[in-house]
Amino acid sequence: MTIGSMLINGELYHGDDSFSVVNPATGEVFGHAPECRQAQLDKAIEGAAGAFYTWRQDIELRRNALKHVAELIQTNCDAIAHLLTLEQGKPLDKAKSEVRTSSLQVQFAAAAQIPVEVLQDTDQALIKLVHKPFGVVAAITPWNFPVSIAMGKVATALIAGNAVILKPSPYTPLSTLKIAEVIKDALPAGVLNIISGSDPLGAALTAHPLIRKIDFTGSVGTGKRVAAAAAPDLKRFTLELGGNDPAIVLPDANPKKIAKAIFWGAFANSGQVCIAAKRLYVHESIKEALTTELAALAEQAKVGNGLDEDTRLGPINNQAQFERVTTLVEEAKGAGARVVTGGDALGQGYCFQNTILTDLDDNARIVQEEQFGPVLPILAYQDINDVVSRANNTHFGLGSSIWTEDLPQAEVLAERIEAGTTWVNQHLALSPLAPFGGTKWSGVGYIGGKWGIEGATELQVINIKRA
Ligand code: NAD
Prior knowledge:
Helices cover 39% and strands 23% of the residues. It is of the alpha/beta class.
């Protein structure tokens, strides 16, 4: 049995209460994580508030500490990745690459510049703009990429001079708690606290008066609750929420050439990616050809236990999500959708067959809602204006993609899509040069690069009269 420890004000705590963690590949409990009590939450937040005043003053100290954190994550990659596969389900090579990415994110943040802009420098006045940390930041993460989402948030907040309370999802706490153990001595006590608990802990954290900023990634429903919880204290927040990305294939696209990239754009991490392609609109002239190619890829990609070497795609992460995906597929079948391939559970933990559905209505829930599982609905269209309005007819606005040989046309079309990112001939292609965030219900604020630093700081104008 694996048992995690929280990191509170520089000390590791097993906690008095715990909750169980399930391996989604088997459906069985394999570990326990501490259930953080109110007194421990208070201690973590008060410790962070105390550590903040020294931490914010010295960027070189912060750079060196973060470089050390990055090295420790890299050195302990295998142990963290093993836990990540056990609790999240993803194949071990993908877990290792998530941990390596996290180490790189921390290294990248360690080198970030916190800008000071001079707005006026004349005989009359010096006006400059400084970016200042908020204080104690609450970082709350989901279960799909628990390590990389956590370390991206933590590293950005810390380099900007904030202290952080990190709370992972109760479905995937152990890889994050392993990081707590590994980096314990690399940061001054209190600067980073890592706590675990079931969902009410997230609410208690966001309601705490000493939290000044909430950096949240998760579902739209919880994101709205976080925004409401922030309101009484006017806490700042960044919300990275759900998506229902449309991918639009124009009639000139070559099905054989694009099928692989579309397949992995939809099924990576078993579809449990906020920016996975979740609705595929294909021009009717090539719909059958592309559907056949995608079905072949779906059948080839072996679903199973992430610890087995030949597994390409792991299980759905948890029982509630497994039941949701199953219900959405059953509803679609009941309404007359054609199951091109898959369509059922594998009968092994929360594994679900890679599933491709077609001949369904735009109003089907699996088209309207974020399925967040290994299922792709394929819809035909005839007219480009019609498909743009169908793609935009949603509260979501995270990612999107257009597939065509005609790049100038794609560039024009891209601007008509309501989304935080629109890719052309690719999906899921995040760039360290670009901000990442959603429009409409998919989020508030941006992460990545200078936009991430802006989100982790607030502005102060210093205006000095010289004459
Ligand atoms: P979720 O909203 O259920 O939970 C996310 C986190 O919020 C968990 O740590 C949970 O314990 C915590 N939480 C629950 N109730 C809370 C409350 N009242 N106050 C504060 N925190 C609370 O989401 P999930 O099921 O873990 O994650 C899947 C969702 O996350 C999907 O919708 C996915 O699209 C989205 N997501 C978005 C991005 C992005 O960058 N936009 C990235 C990854 C995942």
